[in-house]
Structures are given as C-alpha cells and as structure tokens.
Amino acid sequence: MYSEDIEGTGQMERSGDDVYSKPIRAGKRTYFFDVKATKGNDYYLTITESKRRVEKDGHFAYDKHKIFLYKEDFDKFTEGLQEVIDYIKGNCLKDVPAQEEVKKDTDASFSDVNFEEL
C-alpha cells in the first residue's frame, strides 16, 4: 500500500489500487501485508519483505522481495504456513527462550560515558 521512505522525508507514497496495509517492523526488516484490488474489484494480498542497506556512497537502498497471493490460494497458503510454523516451534526452537524471556535493552542496560573523561 505504501512504498518505503526512500528520500528520508518521513512520507510514504500510496498507490491507487490499495485497500488496506499492515506494516510489521522486525529488526532490520519491514514486512508489508497489503490488500490490493484489481480493476474488476477482485482482492489479492501482496507480502513484501523490505530490508534497508547502505550503499558504498553512504546512501540508503532497499532490497525488496514480494509474493502475490490470490484469494483462491488463501486457505492452502494459510494451512501450509501454519504447518511449517508449528514444525519450527515444535522441533527447532526447543532451546530458544520465549520472546518474553529475552532481556530487552533499556537505558539501564548501558553505561553512561562521558567522552571528556576518555
């Protein structure tokens, strides 16, 4: 629904066929779940992964990967995605602490540094 803020203006560009958008910020990546409409008012979903990187000249660029998901595939996609997530949670994350157990960085986690003392 919105393109990235490439120029650093704080504004997102909106395209005309967009119905709804849900951005998910996850570390260095942002995922966009966008509902779009065709000319015939048929709806489909685009899932975009966007990762910001710094070019050699210091400018920012974005790597984007997009999936188009059409309504006739929603059920099969949802079932497959849930099956894979359940598999990962049950077989691959046994030794990984739950999200609420992971200590978050707070101001108290860092030391005050006075550069004049260095």
Automatic annotation (TrEMBL):
One of its GO terms (molecular function) is RNA polymerase II transcription regulatory region sequence-specific DNA binding. Gene3D superfamilies: 3.10.450.700. The keyword DNA-binding applies. Keywords: DNA-binding. It comes from the Bacteria. Belongs to the PUR DNA-binding protein family. This is PUR family DNA/RNA-binding protein.
